[in-house]
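User: I've been trying to design a sequence by hand for this structure and keep getting stuck. Would you show me what you'd pick, starting by listing the structure so we're on the same page?

Assistant: Good idea, let's start from the same input. This is the structure you sent:
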């Protein structure tokens, strides 16, 4: 059974039990992309304990061979203080994209120094890739048999070079437990926010997202950014109806009601809704209910039945099924792990 990332078998947070910050090593080599290098530092590096303001993560940059100056894919060069030995003490390793003139991307064969560095990672370490960083992980066999994603423009290439990898080009990120992969560029932000939420809950994540001026959770999947016919901007959208629905989560909401509020036929509304969010109305509504339950589990003393009613699940059992499917733990385990201090 899937387990909520950052928790042990009982649902207790692994990271909360550790007094010192969780160490994150960002591994780069020549040709790295500066924007993607900055994402883990900006998102995870700025996360703070809500009780005392102490840092929750120690984020360090390391290179594949000794402390040295590392050239980016642009006119930026960074002086990196850590060599690959930093990977041996990391609880999480992040591999951002590098320019597409390397052997992993071109032929599927690993960059020798990258392979040597990745071999230093301890078993059980959580590994993340951003964008085409997935090619580096796949080239050394770390993605064999796993569901993964990468930038939609390179998903077909990843699948062709690594047929044992299960590539999904239609999502912002894939969480497969100890290995997580993200789509292109800014999807690395979504992935790091997901990791932060998994480790420390919604309150910490919302604080970091607010200071970074990004949404804590983006609607839809990566597919919405793939080139497709653009909906008529002058036509009626579904945003007002989505806002209307969020304000009424405690009530039963049918597809017919949503379409009627938007003054559309059910067929037109469903098509427009998917174009704008990347999800069906039903999928979106369940996610809103789960997010609402999440917030109340963290911040209130309400019973499971009360939370289920307020979020529109009807019964605690129904809420349990949906929350466990979405988060990998029961509502009780989630509350035990992420309940914020009163």
């Amino acid at each position: 059974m899937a387990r909520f990332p950052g928790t042990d078998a009982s649902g207790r947070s692994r990271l909360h039990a550790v007094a010192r910050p969780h160490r994150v090593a960002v591994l780069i080599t020549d040709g790295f992309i500066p924007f993607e290098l900055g994402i883990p530092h900006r998102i995870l590096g700025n996360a703070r304990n809500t009780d005392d303001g102490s840092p929750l993560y120690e984020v360090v940059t390391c290179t594949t061979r000794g402390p040295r100056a590392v050239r980016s894919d642009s006119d930026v060069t960074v002086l990196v203080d850590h060599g690959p030995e930093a990977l041996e003490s990391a609880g999480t390793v992040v591999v951002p994209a590098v320019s597409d003139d390397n052997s992993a991307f071109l032929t599927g064969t690993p960059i020798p120094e990258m392979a040597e560095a990745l071999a230093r990672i301890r078993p059980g370490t959580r590994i993340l890739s951003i964008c085409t960083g997935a090619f580096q992980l796949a080239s050394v066999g770390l993605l064999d048999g796993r569901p993964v994603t990468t930038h939609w423009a390179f998903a077909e290439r990843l699948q062709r070079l690594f047929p044992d990898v299960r590539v999904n080009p239609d999502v912002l990120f894939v969480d497969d437990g100890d290995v997580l992969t993200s789509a292109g560029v800014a999807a690395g932000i979504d992935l790091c926010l997901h990791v932060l939420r998994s480790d420390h809950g919604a309150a910490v994540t919302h604080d970091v997202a607010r200071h970074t001026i990004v949404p804590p959770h983006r609607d839809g999947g990566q597919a919405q950014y793939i080139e497709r016919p653009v909906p008529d901007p002058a036509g009626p959208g579904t945003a007002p109806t989505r806002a209307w629905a969020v304000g009424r989560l405690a009530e039963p909401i049918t597809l017919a009601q949503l379409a009627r509020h938007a003054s559309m036929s059910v067929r037109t509304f469903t098509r427009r809704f998917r174009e704008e969010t990347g999800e069906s109305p039903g999928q979106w509504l369940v996610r809103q209910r789960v997010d609402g339950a999440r917030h109340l589990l963290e911040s209130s003393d309400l019973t499971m039945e009360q939370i289920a009613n307020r979020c529109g699940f009807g019964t605690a059992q129904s809420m349990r099924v949906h929350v466990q499917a979405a988060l990998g733990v029961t509502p009780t385990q989630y509350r035990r792990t992420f309940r914020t201090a009163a």
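That's my pick for every position. To get oriented when you compare it with your attempt: The longest strand covers residues 22-28. The chain has 13 helices and ten strands.
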